[in-house]
Amino acid sequence: MSRRARSSLAAAVLAAVLMGLRAAPQHAVGPLQPYTNAWTMTFHGDDGTVSPPQLWEDSMDTITWNGRPAMQRVQIEHRLVPVGGYQRTANVFDARTLAPYMTEVRQRNGMFVRREYDGLRVREIRSVRSSAGVDSAMREYTVSAPFIDFYGGMYATVLAARPLTAGLQGTFPALLAPDTIVQVPFSVLTRDTVRGVGGALTSAFKVDVGISSGPGAGSGTFTAWVIDKPPYVLRLTTKQGKPPGYWSWDETP
Length: 253
Known about the structure:
It is globular and about 50 Å long. It is built from three helices and 14 strands. The chain is 11% helix and 55% strand.
């Protein structure tokens, strides 16, 4: 089977997954659209402490990938420790089905991981520490079923590609680790009002998403406030155990 045929089959399966979760048409659905956005990332400790805010940039644009139209999402986390540190995450995917084509995460210190997807086949190149500094290693593997790259950087944007209505519950397949595809559960809680782009109060769906830290690790929940137009996700919160508290991503004023 050719690369294009394998990718088309995987995309068709993911499209069926998305279609199977359709509900009342209160949340319009279509191919994701380009945008440029910025969040303020803050840690809120259970003891009342609040960390200095960090900038998290997020953009999406149309590109051509191996001769086919695709979307690319780029996120840049500007870290306060170390000073000037950052992490850049890029996702290339099908705009309607979210079938992944490529994922790449790079840090300022040169460490990186890049995965390219060809249907169920995955080609991974990652940095490794060596006596000479930083080297790279490559491996290829096959996964058991089509998936959406939720843990690879798509996160709550996955929710914007499906119809939402209060009370809706469902799952979507995600690659957690090589040879480990999990079903990520989500639950649409209610309509809520949250600060949107430019500080305007905006009505959004409040959605809880179950997350895992890895095979054999503990699980948790993050909450997303989702709308049906760019930038799609207006707010995120996620609990943290050590130190106890939660992180929030809010629209930059």
